[in-house]
Amino acid sequence: MKNKFVVLAATLTFALPMFGQSKEDNRLANSATVMQMLSQNDGLPTSILDKADCVVIFPSVKKVAIGIGSSYGRGALVCRTGAQMDGDWGAPAMYKLDQGSIGLQLGSTATDFVLVVMSKKGVDQILNGKTKLGGNAAAAAGPTGTQATGYNADAMKADVLTYSRSKGLFAGVSLEGASMDTDDDANKTLYGKQISAKDIVLGGQSVIPAAKPLVDTLDKMSPSRK
């Protein structure tokens, strides 16, 4: 009987990391699917993405009953490479979206959120830790259609443009009051070591195989600005 418990314990020891890896891989795969859908439906204007330094994708965010937990969604941040953030898209860092006014935006079905980071200030705030949209990072509902043509983020003073997709419909949405922070446990699971979002994005971290579909999709949607 003792030997059986030893075998069971050993099996769980090896299985748990694999389960965690699969969970993070699924998050990256779902994020890639969201971006693919947006590219096919012209949901996220290319003119906006071409000016972006980073994007944060939170797939399938669901409303959580009060008292169960504060986290509404988990997703991935992907930034352009290069000192000026004008190159190809790089390795993703995992993030979590916390409750705030976002609760008012959610219905009974899952909602995809895409946050487009348009300024260096926005990038710095997000990479340095917890960021409150509308607080230490100015946020606005992202423009769509003809409104996106000629959009000037500097003139509008928007650090982050926010979009949502629910029931196949894609639109700009206000997420002011919501906050996001690094998902350190997920990053450790994904990269096999304790690593900060800043080191992933700015430290030249290689794109892991699980992230390649997401990064390839972004490169196809909006290539390097160099």
Give an overview in words.
The protein has one domain (2-221). Helix 4 (153-156) links the parallel strand 6 (139-141) and strand 7. It contains 7 helices and 9 strands. By secondary structure, the protein is an alpha+beta fold. It has helices at 2-40, 46-49, 120-127, 153-156, 184-191, 197-202, 212-221; strands at residues 54-61, 71-79, 93-98, 111-117, 131-132, 139-141, 160-166, 169-172, 179-182. The longest helix is centred in the N-terminal third of the chain and has 39 residues, at 2-40. Strands 1, 2, 3, 4, 5, 6, 7, 8 and 9 form a 9-stranded mixed beta sheet that branches.
Index terms:
226 residues, alpha+beta, nine-stranded mixed sheet
Topology summary:
Blueprint lengths: L1 H39 L5 H4 L4 E8 L9 E9 L13 E6 L12 E7 L2 H8 L3 E2 L6 E3 L11 H4 L3 E7 L2 E4 L6 E4 L1 H8 L5 H6 L9 H10 L5
Parallel strand pairs: 6-7
Antiparallel strand pairs: 1-2, 1-4, 2-3, 3-9, 4-7, 5-9, 7-8
Helix pairs in contact: 1-7
Quick synopsis:
By secondary structure, this protein is α+β, with helices and mostly antiparallel strands. Helix content is 35%, strand content 22%.
Q: Which stretches are poorly predicted, pLDDT < 50 over at least 5 residues?
A: 2-20, 67-71
Radius of gyration: 18 Å
In N-to-C order, the SSE pattern is HHEEEEHEEHEEEHHH
> What's the pLDDT, averaged over the residues?
82
Shape: globular
Task: Return the domain count.
Answer: 1
**From the helix content, strand content and strand pairing, which structural class follows?**
alpha+beta
Count of separate DSSP helical elements: 7
Helix content percent band: 25-40%
Q: How many β strands by DSSP? A: 9
> What percentage of the residues does DSSP assign to strands (E)?
15-25%
Distance between the termini: 64 Å
